[in-house]
Amino acid sequence: xxxxxxxxxxxxxxxxxxxxxxxxxxxxxxxxxxxxxxxxxxxxxxxxxxxxxxxxxxxxxxxxxxxxxxxxxxxxxxxxxxxxxxxxxxxxxxxxxxxxxxxxxxxxxxxxxxxxxxxxxxxxxxxxxxxxxxxxxxxxxxxxxxxxxxxxxxxxxxxxxxxxxxxxxxxxxxxxxxxxxxxxxxxxxxxxxxxxxxxxx
Length: 201
Prior knowledge:
By secondary structure, this protein is mostly helical. It contains eight helices and three strands, in the order αααααβββααα. Strands 2-1-3 form a three-stranded antiparallel β-sheet. Strand 1 (130-137) and strand 2 (140-147) form a beta hairpin.
């Protein structure tokens, strides 16, 4: 079965003023849609993969036929990463995590401020296009960045929070000011969704 473009869980303008309406429209309807379409085109060449989930494909890329492996890595990653990205943001969100997730962040990074500083460093120092992640690694948490549309699942981790630092995610509003985008982004982080993902794994 073909993968589908997931609808946004809120209106295009819901994350204003942090992320502008036009960026959300282009990012979701053009960029995300292209990843889904290109992933489906690759999978069509190997019908035996049709029953596999995106998580299964990305968690074991070596099992993907070599002729489409790069396409699945890029477009499968782009599809999954954006699915998470829309979900871990919400209008009237932000603040700090609570409960078990907050305890895990404190255990791993000392306090929320230290976590935020390290996460922002991962986002701002990613050269070129990529992502910053908070991921579950074993029984703990890890901050990392990946290039392009690579995903922590390919390295055995469980992504909990991801920030898209490709220029198309912020350039219309912030131009080359990635650090400003990263700072403002905290105001739309949906910690309830991140906590749900943490509890599920």
